[in-house]
Here is the input.
Amino acid sequence: MADHEHDVLVIGSGAGGGMAAYVLTQSGVKVHMLEAGRDYDPIAETPMFSENRDAPLLGAGTPDKDFGYYNATIDGGWEIDGEPYSTGEDTEFQWWRTRMLGGRTNHWARNSFRMGEYDFKPKTRDGLGFDWPMEYAELAPWYDRVEKLVGVYGVNSGLANHPDSGDAVLQPPPKARVPELFAAAAAADIGIPCVPARRAVLTRDKGDGRSPCFWATDCGRGCNIGAAFQTTTSLLPWARSTGNLTITTNAMVYEITTGDDGKANGARYIDKTTGEHKFIGARAVVLAASAAESARILLNSNARDTGGLANSSGQVGRNLMDTVGSGITGQIPALENRPRYNEDGAMGMHVYVPFWLYEEQAAGQLDFPRGYHLELYSQFSAPGMGSGSGLDGYGPSMLDSARRYYGSFIHFAQRGEMIPNENCYAEIDPDGKDKFGIPILKFHYKHSAHEFAQVAHAQQASIELIERMGGRVVSDVKSPEEAIAAGGVIIHEIGTARMGASAADSVTNSYGQTWNVPNLFILDGAIFASKAHKNPTLTILTLAMRGADHMVNEMKRGAI
Amino acid sequence: MSYLPKTDRRTTLKWLLAGIGTTPVLAACGAPDHTDQPRALLGVPKPISGVPYGADPDLMTPAITWDLTLSPEQLQLVAALTDILLPANQEVPAGSALGIPDFIDEWVSSPYEQTQDDRVELFALFDWLEGEARTAGASSFASANAALKTEILDRVAWKDRLTDETRDLGEAFDTFRNLSVSAYFASEAGSAWLGYLGNRPSMGDYAGPTQEALDHLDAQLALLGLQRPMDL
Here is the structure.
């Protein structure tokens, strides 16, 4: 029969691929995972506690390491040597890639907000974009399972469209820090909620080999005690321990192959260590290479002359979205010279501002249709490059100012929902190939008035919060068109193989199973039908768990 | 007393020993570096050599993959400048004693586009400082008396005193200040003086703010008519 020892090929080892491999191997399915980057051992390679002063250039970001020397990103970033992408006219789009085992889960912010009932039916609610082919209620128990498995801190706040988790699902959040308490006090006074954030950081020992957070070292470096969730300390080793997972790294997939029956039967890849082109067969394939890379693989696959694989709808590469991002920074005199204490905490957010105006929005009182949340950042952070910015003069008075201002700045980052539009898509660039000879992607991107109006509102809300704190805005308040982050910059790109109710206008069903190729599942951000303001990784994990579970059932009943 | 480079780990690790490939530097930096032309006032800096550290450096054993390039005269000027910018206090040694000049050298010698832009900007500042000191009769900026040094520096160090003529120099000094002060606070002594108390693990729940920090917060909130939320 099959000439391979495994059943399912999983392409990608990040949130989607990692979860798929975990679910499949737990069910006894033999999985072979292909990862384009190198192997990575977070136990040995994470620079926990390393000081900025010991890194080149104080650890500042460079084109080699955009997010700083110690950031976990390996062989990745905005640009990768020999792996270009292009952009259409008037398009500013940046494509973050992380070529390593575990992908971006090694360095993500761990913010883990559930999508809610409104988020799954946006078109029903306001007539724009597309509905998902399922209700929130369908996904709720899967969210519970994922949150329990990975470990998420937070509380049930009971707010509209910010769903509560099941009983005993969430772990206790860390106490708020002084600037967070200050912001929450101001927010309460002006009627804006400020509640514990939800992050995939353990605060309790789950007995699964990982340790709870010990309140030190930046999660972006990765976490060698496993407290900050990444697939390389959790799903991948757990899947491997079943004996059912084989991982091949440095395997740059460029094509999913199909047999005469139209079913996927394997993938072709380039072994980056030798340059050889290789084929690996499989009974079924899970594609989870990240939204844009997955679209690229489909568009480059064997049915290219008909627009790529699994693309009878023509939607592969379309509906590209990223979170709407902007930010305002304030300086708060009341926080100057405040008493010092260890403010590292869980490094990322302990509290945040969830979107609070759903009722007003539904009543037509706002000039933008979808929500956003505000992430807030302010703390006594580790000194490094930038600790000397914004100063004047020299000598003792300058140093005293620096000390006085330390920990008195607060940054509000808007993270908002974007509505898909026909001007945002990725296609194969007919004129470009990467160093492997693989056709590259060309991105097209244009925000609409909806996003700009939302940015204006978020800016105003942030300014209001800063002013209520007695502070002054220190960042340039630009027009929304200038303030909005370029496409891709928030690194939440999704939508390029969206799920839907029919093969006519979508690529997959609600399980990520492609309409055209029933044994091909897409289980990464590509399948999102809309881009809620909630950070996408938790939902990628959840869709992947549910999709892989469905795949197992389909295999059991012989449908795959 | 002249400045001697500090022989710590950061500056003794040489890129030749790091076993890193040899991407041509100019490809990474763009145009040839005209700042390496002979300088009458401050000697001749070495040309940029070495390579970017790449997208997969050893994070556990950081290494600088380029050589330091400041001329001895430039280094003396930088040392003098850091000591005016960052004088010693009871808890932190002066900038030169902390090795800040070596960090400036590391920065302007690194083969990246942004740091090479800074190199051009800072070298122009160094030349100007030196020229002004000599015009005033000193043999060098580094050896000038304190009054002359501050008199010269005052023309570029204060943002609201800049004129069209001194604006570029003022921006260069701002770059120098940002780099130097960042390195100062990142040092062990500077970090302690700033009051950073993190990067220390603790077991159990996060301790949160101290009572002293909460008392201070409550007093500030009261002045603004705000109340601390008790459920966070």
Summary: The domain at 1-47+63-78+96-153+220-318+423-439+496-560 of chain A is CATH 3.50.50.60 (FAD/NAD(P)-binding domain). Chain A touches chain B through 88 residues (CB under 8 Å). The longest helix of chain A spans residues 449-468. Residues 37 and 99 of chain A are 4 Å apart (CA to CA).
